Structure to design on (714 residues):
């Protein structure tokens, strides 16, 4: 393999070089800006994590598995996974092999950025380079892999259902330009390498095409324009890259180390949030996941569009999307790059200024004396007070199991603070947390039992109750059943389906305990989408602006999903889900405690 | 001297000087506010009622009658728990009503 051109340059590389230098400069400056936007503590943490061998290895592994192989996409849908990994991994390998070729055969050119990309134009094959044959084969192989991927991508544009996606994002103009230039790059590369295959060598793909073209055209006038076209396609792609969704390619490589360093969104636009927004590839998996998507009107309210509006600085829409969201967390559960949509919205809500700021200074914790001596303290919470069947069943189950329990709020207590937290009003939430903590501490309990997952989550995440076990009733009753303290008889003729409440499932990772408990009382079937992919009931307190009528379709869709197997009753472990479903249900909807109470012996 | 009763302050509404701009603005943002039938379900369930006399029904009436001080006092203890939304027979998004009033209270012309 030898250099064909003495100066190693041809003007056709200019478009590529312009694009390349632009992208590198943009990303370099962008990286510094983001680093600067991080808080001092976060910045230190991030930089230190880069030199820590454990996190460094994790970074490399995660980048390889997520950015190149797209493991998560494979798990979601094989076709989708194959399509993305063939393009990403194939392209990566072509770049790596290109550099290897330059390094092995013409090492003096390694400093030229364009040489590995346009290698086949600049070299001529000699008889002595048999090793080159391996490269020729690999280059053709990976090019074929990419072309198959591009073919699948084209099919996906027309029939996304083949890839397990009902809906995909609508591309913006720049995204379309980026997409078409990306699609053009690889067929053009195939043409280029085919035209020059008799000079620089080729393999199973390029050599036959070279023979065909030479026979067909009978001259070599075509190869320079094709290399120009290839370079221009690359140039256009890289020039539009920072302004399109393809920015996720460089951004994700920064997002992964930042996440591994333990960074969190602190501001909805700056620092870590910025890199999250840029990392969103706009794949649209979150559109199908979003419970609001059953309404055509809300199709553009999911995380992928939030990210796009943040990039477009559309303040009106950013606020609207942030306040509408049910905060069920399904989008971040299915997200391939791990964009935390709900947290971004929460931080956005925190920016809002209010003229009336609630305070609870006039409420004294000692006005809620907890009577009795039982070590188990039961906090019903606002929602359970409105669904008294749950409260009664819980107290009945506790007495059946012989557990001495006390109620923290027999006549109605204070709110746990989660609704305030979800509205982005941290200060008010903190004040409620402080009050409730004082009440709990003064009671001298060692277990705090909760029947509402909304309360459970904030007690778990934001309260500092060291020494006190915070437990949801589904977990607690399951333990009582398994240990034999609670005797439950199974009704074999009754089939139940369990609805995973968002706050309990995705929020706190409790999926199996409620199911185990229910198995003691009846036969269990699964909803069509269950566990981490369960659908929000639509009643969520997370949404600040969605109206009752607008939630109707969401609830109906979630209910339809639950009753796919035609169970006799729907069981949930959240008073709010129970209430929401009850409005439209065609069969009994019960709380787990009620089901267990009916099935247990006294 | 204690007669065992007092005179209530006048609750007359001065229609000429009444300022209901906040109510009108609220109804533009959350049209559901107009559909309140005053049933009082929200008042009966409210967690904060005990402390600040909070009630969405009264809040809406207060806004219509321009009683800003009363509105502010009522709202001061709201915990946004959403029980009023859950029980409202008209399906009014009461939490949005509350948040909107809190946001626009001193700034009726302000954008949402």
């Amino acid at each position: 393999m030898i250099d064909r051109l003495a100066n190693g340059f041809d003007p056709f590389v200019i478009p590529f070089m312009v694009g390349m230098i632009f992208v590198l400069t943009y990303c370099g400056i962008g990286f510094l800006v983001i680093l600067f936007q991080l808080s001092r503590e976060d910045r230190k943490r991030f930089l230190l994590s880069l030199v820590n061998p454990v996190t460094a290895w994790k970074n490399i592994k995660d980048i390889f598995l997520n950015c190149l192989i797209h493991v998560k996409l494979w798990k979601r849908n094989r076709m989708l996974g194959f399509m993305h990994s063939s393009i990403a991994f194939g392209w990566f390998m072509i770049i790596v092999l290109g550099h290897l070729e330059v390094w092995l055969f013409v090492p003096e050119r390694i400093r030229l950025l364009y040489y590995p990309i346009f290698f086949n134009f600049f070299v001529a094959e000699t008889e002595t380079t048999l090793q080159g044959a391996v490269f020729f084969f690999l280059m053709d192989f990976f090019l074929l892999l990419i072309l198959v991927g591009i073919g699948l991508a084209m099919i996906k544009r027309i029939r996304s259902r083949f890839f397990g996606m009902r809906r995909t994002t609508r591309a913006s103009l720049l995204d379309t330009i980026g997409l078409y230039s990306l699609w053009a790059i690889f067929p053009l590369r195939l043409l280029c390498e085919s035209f020059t295959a008799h000079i620089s060598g080729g393999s199973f793909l390029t050599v036959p095409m070279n023979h065909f073209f030479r026979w067909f055209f009978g001259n070599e006038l075509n190869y320079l324009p094709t290399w120009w076209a290839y370079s221009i396609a690359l140039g256009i792609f890289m020039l539009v890259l920072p302004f399109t969704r393809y920015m996720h390619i460089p951004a994700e490589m920064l997002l992964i180390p930042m996440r591994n360093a333990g960074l969190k969104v602190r501001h909805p636009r700056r620092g870590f949030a910025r890199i999250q927004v840029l990392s969103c590839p706009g794949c649209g998996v979150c559109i199908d996941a979003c419970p609001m998507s059953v309404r055509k009107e809300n199709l553009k309210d999911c995380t992928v569009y939030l990210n796009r509006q943040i990039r477009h600085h559309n303040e009106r829409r950013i606020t609207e999307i942030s306040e509408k969201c049910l905060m069920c967390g399904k989008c971040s559960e299915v997200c391939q790059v791990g964009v935390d949509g709900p947290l971004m919205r929460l931080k956005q809500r925190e920016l809002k200024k209010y003229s009336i700021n609630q305070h609870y200074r006039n409420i004294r914790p000692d006005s809620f004396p907890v009577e009795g001596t039982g070590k188990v303290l039961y906090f019903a919470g606002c929602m359970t007070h409105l669904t008294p069947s749950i409260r009664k069943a819980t107290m009945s189950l506790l007495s059946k199991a012989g557990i001495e329990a006390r109620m923290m709020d027999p006549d109605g207590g204070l709110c746990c603070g989660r609704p305030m937290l979800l509205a982005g009003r941290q200060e008010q939430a903190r004040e409620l947390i402080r009050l409730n903590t004082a009440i709990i501490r003064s009671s001298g309990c060692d277990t705090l039992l909760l029947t509402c997952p909304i309360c459970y989550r904030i007690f778990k995440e934001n309260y500092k109750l060291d020494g006190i076990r915070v437990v949801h009733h589904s977990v607690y009753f399951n333990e009582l059943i398994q240990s034999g303290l609670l005797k439950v008889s199974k009704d074999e003729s009754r089939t139940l389906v369990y609805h995973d409440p968002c706050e309990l499932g995705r929020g706190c990772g409790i999926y199996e305990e409620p199911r185990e408990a229910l198995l003691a009382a009846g036969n269990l079937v699964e909803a069509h989408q269950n566990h981490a992919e369960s659908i929000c009931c639509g009643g969520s307190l997370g949404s600040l602006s969605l109206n009752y009528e607008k939630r109707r379709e969401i609830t109906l869709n979630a209910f339809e999903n639950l009753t796919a197997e035609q169970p006799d009753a729907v069981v949930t472990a959240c008073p709010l889900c129970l209430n929401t479903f009850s409005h439209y249900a065609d069969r009994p909807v019960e709380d787990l405690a009620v089901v267990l109470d009916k099935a247990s012996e006294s | 001297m204690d007669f065992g009763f007092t005179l209530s302050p006048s609750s007359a509404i001065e229609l000429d000087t009444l300022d209901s701009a906040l109510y009108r603005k609220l109804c533009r943002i959350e049209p559901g506010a107009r559909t309140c039938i005053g049933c009082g379900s929200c008042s009966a369930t409210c967690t904060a009622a005990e402390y600040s006399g909070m009630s969405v029904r009264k809040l809406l009436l207060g806004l219509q009658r321009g009683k800003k001080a009363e509105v502010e006092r009522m709202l001061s203890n709201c915990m946004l728990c959403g029980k009023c939304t859950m029980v409202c027979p008209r399906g009014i998004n009461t939490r949005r009503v509350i948040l909107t009033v809190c946001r626009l209270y001193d700034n009726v012309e302000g954008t949402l």
Summary: Residues 78-105 of chain A form the longest helix (28 residues). Chain A has three domains: 2-244, 264-350, 363-602.
